[in-house]
Design brief:
Largest sheet: 8 strands, mixed
Shape: globular
Length: 344
């Protein structure tokens, strides 16, 4: 059982743990709303796409299956979130069904679902094209339909029966391309009547995305590898900004040797050298888009390492790169990944 102290200097008082049912909270009215307002309690890199999506169709008609929340991670993967008040021994089975249905999404279908949801939420007229642009801008790097082939399943409950944890652990072993997370939350009541909610990832204990993945199919393998590459860069930036490992305004360099073939490196380096500001990239403390490119026309635009790398390659007329951007962007001769990993 979780225990939380509310402290004021040397004074402390215990917050009393309660249950959703005792506070007359429900998952569709309360828990769902909390996460829609603050999705970072699950993952700081996700953006809510829709809630209670029901637009599945087949030759046999529609289905009544409704995942509680659909979200998009900044790695480009779809996230299916299933919420429970209390405990449910079948929560993982529901999530597997929703994951299988969601794996058929295309980017345009997601954008249409997001536009519909935004209109329903705020009443504003949001087009599918505008929603697609919002989603694409959220993703760090190139976003393709292929990345949607292996949705991440997130189970959120007050507690999990042993059979759910056992099944999820087994799935991690036999189906490593299928990522299933278990997040617990707990309600705490202060003696002043305040309500506090704590969220914690229970499983997996660590991030397994860097481990070697065995493919269930080529499509899923490619999606898993692309997501892992994006996560590698995102984690490096997060660590560096959190602990100030690169000074504000530090000049960055794009080191391509050993990352691409010599001909490609020559194309990009030659293009960068054509004008004075093309190779001037400065570091800022933004947690996901820390790079400012002095050659870019709009001064207030900040870039993630992956998106700036891709933009430079595109403008230089070089082939689309596949290496991790965190390994190529360097400060003082050390890559972002090296700097973050050394600190860890």
């Amino acid at each position: 059982m979780s225990k939380i102290l509310q402290v004021d200097g040397t004074n402390a008082r215990m917050l009393m743990q309660s249950r959703m049912s005792d506070q007359q909270f429900t998952e569709p009215v309360h828990l769902e709303s909390w996460i829609i307002q603050h999705p970072s309690v699950i993952d700081p890199g996700i953006k809510i796409i829709a809630n209670q999506f029901s637009g599945w169709e087949s030759q046999e008609g529609t289905t009544r299956d409704r995942p509680d929340l659909l979200a998009l991670a900044d790695t480009g993967e779809l996230v299916v979130i299933e919420l429970k008040r209390g405990s449910d021994r079948n929560v993982h089975l529901q999530a597997l069904t929703y994951g299988a249905l969601s794996a058929t999404f295309t980017r345009n279908q997601l954008a249409e679902a997001h536009a519909t949801w935004l209109r329903r939420q705020g009443g504003e007229d949001v087009s599918t094209e505008s929603a697609l642009e919002q989603l694409a801008n959220h993703v760090d790097g190139d976003w393709t339909d292929e990345l949607l082939a292996a949705p991440r399943l997130v189970l959120v409950a007050e507690d999990f029966p042993g059979q759910v944890i056992t099944t999820v652990q087994w799935l991690a072993t036999v189906a490593p391309n299928l990522v299933v997370e278990c997040h617990e939350y707990h309600i705490f009541i202060g003696d002043d009547g305040s309500t506090n909610v704590n969220f914690q990832r229970l499983f997996p204990v660590d991030d397994l995305s860097d481990r070697l993945l065995r493919p269930a199919s080529m499509k899923v393998e490619n999606a898993s590898r692309a997501v892992a590459e994006n996560k590698r860069g995102a984690r490096s930036v997060s660590v560096i900004t959190e602990f100030g490992l690169i000074p504000e305004g530090g000049m960055m360099t794009l080191e391509l040797e050993s990352r691409v073939v010599a001909e490609t490196a020559a194309i990009v380096n030659s293009w960068l050298a054509e004008e004075p500001n093309r190779d001037r990239v400065r570091w800022t403390s933004h947690p996901s888009r820390p790079l400012i490119w002095e050659a870019f026309e709009e001064d207030d635009v900040q870039w993630s390492p992956t998106k700036l790398r891709n933009e430079i390659f595109r403008r230089a007329g070089a082939p689309v790169p596949t290496f991790s951007a965190a390994d190529a962007w360097c400060y003082d001769g050390r890559s972002l990944y090296w700097i973050a990993d050394e600190y860890r």
